[in-house]
Amino acid sequence: MKIYNEKERINLREIHLRAPATTANVGPGYDIFAIALEEPYDEIKLKLNDSGKIKIKLSGEKQDIPLNPNDNTAGIAIQELLKRKKIRQGIDLQIIKKMPSGCGLGTTGASASACVSGLNKILDLDISNNEMIDIARFGEVASGGFPHADNVAAALLGGFILVKSYDPINVLKLNIPEFPVVLAVIRKSQRTTRGFISYDIGESKLKEQIAHCSAVINSIYTRNIEEFGKAINMDYVAEPVRSAAIPNYYRIKDELLDYGAFGVNISGGGSSVFAICMENQINKIAQIMEKELSGNPNFIKIIKTKVSNLGVTEIS
Amino acid sequence: MKIYNEKERINLREIHLRAPATTANVGPGYDIFAIALEEPYDEIKLKLNDSGKIKIKLSGEKQDIPLNPNDNTAGIAIQELLKRKKIRQGIDLQIIKKMPSGCGLGTTGASASACVSGLNKILDLDISNNEMIDIARFGEVASGGFPHADNVAAALLGGFILVKSYDPINVLKLNIPEFPVVLAVIRKSQRTTRGFISYDIGESKLKEQIAHCSAVINSIYTRNIEEFGKAINMDYVAEPVRSAAIPNYYRIKDELLDYGAFGVNISGGGSSVFAICMENQINKIAQIMEKELSGNPNFIKIIKTKVSNLGVTEIS
Predict the structure, then answer these.
(1) Is residue B54 predicted with pLDDT exceeding 90?
(2) Which of B198, B210, B221 sits opposite A213 (nearest CB)?
């Protein structure tokens, strides 16, 4: 049996994780709903170092992501974790970008979740899921200005997330049928539109919004993709604001619904668009999305994926 | 075989129904949630007559209920049904009051639902549940000024009701575990406080309210009375307005929670108070409610009951 010295022991502690994209809000559930997707995903590698510093490296798809840990979502989450647990520890973080950020797919939150989950494991901290989410969400301030928990929770746990409470953080994960999802990945042109969003939509629309949120939960239990699609197809709160940045959004949405999508909405903070449909409709829906949205100067690609019950997972 | 003449045939067409009390809102679900209760209930008898007129008689508990069909909730619902179906028909309606009205227990809506359901049967009209609810709710204008559908739907169908949409009416019934309910029946002092209710509660409270509505649905599927109780224990919309008419409401609520109730809230338009608790806590919770609320000048009685999946049922 090899006896490791302290330096070697530290070097052993590394972990390689995969963190899924997520779509937050999921229609009417602004800041309280999110789902994990099978694809796309990012990977991260975490390794303890003895420099006492957090060092971030980026590989994979080239992107304009800050490497300073004070500006990087995952870096902020790592620091929050170390502060709360009163740990002084240097960490090498490698983010292997496989998905585009700034598209409303929760990619930065996914890295933050993976870091918190990975450190929980390699530092043997035994942190509860709710606390991990509470830590990971602090990084979200860097991207959206508000520590929303929906994306990080969905990335961490997978499945369908209901944020039951923000104070304290109390998150419910529901296993969800693997409904097919077609994504049109579109980078958003503004940093955040959060400040323009208001619940001041009048009482009758608000009741409808709340009823649709309730119907989303019902549809998951009844495994009814048509009800799920209809329930997530509406949103009086975020969709009207965020669709303003997507030319012809409502016309395209109507076309997708005419061609058999059960529900269409905007992913998270935008500007990606997602559609829920039957398995045998995926190609047709993807074609229409490509035809209608690829002319958008911020369009990146179409992804055919599905809802996934897997959150952050270790890559062996 | 006896051959009936037309007059005899008409006289045969009568029906005797039982319609349950309901508690609407069920905490956070203002105008979109309701549950049916096993007790109390009213009965109605419907009989076709050849006078062409709607005649309402009242028996049972003496109460100040209008007998003019234009002012009576059930009378309005009957007229709405006849108008929609283009039927000219005289009807004798006997309402056998077994529960107090004006307490937020949906008693007038229950009569309206029973009438619509009964006429649907004896006139052989084959009306869908959603249309029956849509017809029955028009009577609600007589009591609350707004044709809310939650009470009438719960009385008609039983179980837990989610009003998914008001336009068109689309109601979902969930079978619900028979959670124990203790009711403190208290007559409300004002006719309606609906006009004082507003959703203008700020974004973070609203998100919490929506999340709690979603948690209510989740708790029904998981058959988790503790989660159900916690989810219905809050309401930022109606409870603050309607509790103002119940002296010491929040102190009493805290006491009930301390003694083991999972959730306490106000039934429908008030002023009745209901508590959800475990079977073996019913007597203690009932005692505390009686001690704390029986001094209220509008207090009527304590009822130990439970949630029921039975709606309007025929009494043979």
Answers:
(1) yes
(2) B210
What single letter denotes the amino acid at residue A52?
Answer: G
Which chain A positions have a beta carbon within 8 Å of B166's beta carbon?
Answer: 204, 207-208
Cα(B297)–Cα(B187) distance, integer angstroms: 9
CATH class, range B180-306:
alpha beta
Mean pLDDT of the A283-305 span: 97
ipTM for the whole complex: 0.88
Domain B6-176+309-314, CATH class in plain words: alpha beta
B130, B199, B220, best to mutate vs chain A, most A CBs in 10 Å = B199
| Chain B residues whose C-beta sits inside 8 Å of any chain A C-beta | 28-33, 162-166, 172, 174, 198-200, 203-204, 206-218, 221
Chain-chain contact of B214 with A214 (C-beta, under 8 angstroms): yes
CATH 3.30.70.890 domain span(s) along chain B = 180-306
Pairing of strands B33-49, B90-97: antiparallel
List the single range of A163-177, A191-205, A221-235, B157-171 with lowest mean pLDDT: A191-205
Mean pLDDT of B59-86: 91
Render pLDDT for A1-45 as a digit per residue (tens, 0 to 9). 445 566 655 556 899 999 999 999 999 999 999 999 999 999 999
Task: Please answer yes or no on whether A207 and B166 come within 8 Å at the CB atom.
Answer: yes
At B1, is the pLDDT very low, low, confident or very high (cuts 50, 70, 90)? very low
What residues does CATH 3.30.70.890 cover in chain A?
180-305
Cα A79 to Cα A72: distance, rounded to the nearest angstrom: 11
Residues of chain B with CATH 3.30.230.10: 6-176+309-314
Residue A50 one-letter amino acid: D
Q: How far is A83 from chain B (nearest CA, A)?
A: 27
A25 φ/ψ sector (left φ>0, alpha ψ -120 to 50, else beta): left
Q: How far is A214 from chain B (nearest CA, A)?
A: 5
pLDDT at A192: 72
Nearest-CA distance from A163 to chain B in Å? 7
Q: Do B207 and A32 touch (CB under 8 A)?
A: yes
The yes-or-no verdict on residue B179 having pLDDT over 90 is: yes
Dihedral sign computed on CA atoms, order B290, B296, B297, B299: negative
- Superfamily of domain A180-305, CATH level 4: GHMP kinase, C-terminal domain (3.30.70.890)
Residue of A nearest to B202 (CA): A199
Summarised one tens digit per residue, pLDDT across range B275-310 is 999 999 999 999 999 999 999 999 999 999 999 999
Mean pLDDT of chain B: 92
**Residues of A contacting chain B (CB within 8 angstroms):** 28-33, 162-166, 172, 174, 198-200, 203-204, 206-218, 221
